[in-house]
Design a protein that fits this description.
By secondary structure, this protein is mainly alpha-helical. The protein has 10 helices and 4 strands; from the N terminus they run E-H-E-H-E-E-H-H-H-H-H-H-H-H.
Length: 341
Amino acid sequence: MSEGAGEAGNSAYGRKAFKRSRSHFADRVTADGRDGWPVAAGRYRLVVSRACPWASRALVSRRLLGLEQALSLAIADPIQDDRSWRFTLDPDGRDPVLGIRYLSEAYDRRETGYPGGVSVPAIVDVPSGALVTNDFQQITLDLATEWTALHRPGAPDLYPEKLRDEIDEVMAGVYHDVNNGVYRAGFATGQEEYEEACAGVFRRLELLTPRLERQRYLVGDTITEADIRLFTTLVRFDAVYHGHFKCNRWKLTESPVLWGYVRDLFQTPGFGDTVDFDHIKRHYYQAHTGVNPTRIVPLGPDLSGWLTPHHREELGGRPFGDGTPPGPVPADEEVPARGRP
């Protein structure tokens, strides 16, 4: 079973402290193909779980940049078994493009007998069926900067060069204290370890609050990679991290600034239309049996508030800069009604 939302047996849950494993396969898909993997429409398949915050970054980026036709999508079952992420949502339990039942098969085609965990997001080379990369930190940056020839007209610049130093600085703090901090709290096996991680989560959120009180987005006046990375943790906060991971000093809905910020993003095309709360809750509560041995999935929280007015537009800002919103979600990628507010 998974100890981290994107991993199957690839973390240190059960040890003294939770440590997230580095991505083992860090090849990059680039415009010049310098790692042997050139950007090409239709060549690669993005494998995700809608439950996983690390994979959800790639889902949001792909939508905002309009890469749906260039980079096909495979959605795994939110519940893994001991053989890794599985394609039970597809007819006959096989991914229709890769022809595999488990993501581990793509890992095996890349490295036979690979001893590490099988994680999402993953980019798979369709012709060979082999994994290209599982580097969740780099995948979205490359989608924004290396795949530009395949971006839709009006695609936003999610990693503008003049703001990269500030974006990187903000993302580093968010990653350590929030993105990964909720996991360190949730999988802690000692009181001191838990308290340190939990305190770090809320300390960082409280540091971000004044920033987001005076500006609509984290860096500059448009959506950037920094917003995507914070969003994928915040959108899961009340549903799973508050209770399941014991990050319960307060709920997101009790923070007017952060609750307004995340609702603003959720209601922006490309963000909320990728979120499946059903998959999120079932994965965390049913896959993490060390934390929740009964595997009972709670009925709450009430999701209706996600669509209420946020009034963040009063702060100004231009969500897509000089670009435009993405088009409608492809019919075969729509989130089922059960997973939406």
